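Figure-free illustration: sequence to structure, shown twice.
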Amino acid sequence: MSVTVRYFAGAAEAAGVATETLDDDAARTAGDLRAAVVAAHGPELGRVLGRCSLLAAGRRLADDAAPVPPGSTVDVLPPFAGG
């Protein structure tokens, strides 16, 4: 199986892509996922990720130890302002 990562706003700009697919082994936890995408896209994405929320299966991945459900879609959401 694989994990789909969808980037929004500044995260998409830093990654250079809107969507990508990772092998489940590269994204077992939120920390694994962060490390894999920074390795693929560089330190600017790492800086942006520090301000982003990760959502998978309708739940926020609150810390690096949070498991990423196999086959899920992870949304990388920068902070939003306004209303």
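We now fold a second protein in the same way, so the two outputs can be compared directly.
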Amino acid sequence: MAGKKPSHRAFKVADQIQRDLTQLLARLKDPRLGLVTLQGVEISPDYAHAKVFFSLLTGTPEQTQAALDQAAGFLRNGLFKRLQIHTVPTLHFVFDHSCERAADMNALIAKAVSTRAKED
């Protein structure tokens, strides 16, 4: 069934994974990690996989992605100890470009407003 909506429980588990990962990330001492913010988690219906969307305040997406991928086993083990579910998902980290797009859009709007103000 393509397009099946996630259950309420899946949303709760994804939210708990996001909160727990935030705490676990604070323990990582990898210098490649910038200031990481977890934007959300999407979990597969069978709980086998979780896409973890992140954004950055500092650092590069490529280096941060590499550090997160390398730490995925440690993070998954930490989740295993915290979550009360049978299957702890394999973590897949994905850089979220929405913050960059929002900043670009705000800059375009500001430019358009200033251009219009100069014309008036």
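Summary for the second example: Residues 61-82 form the longest helix (22 residues).
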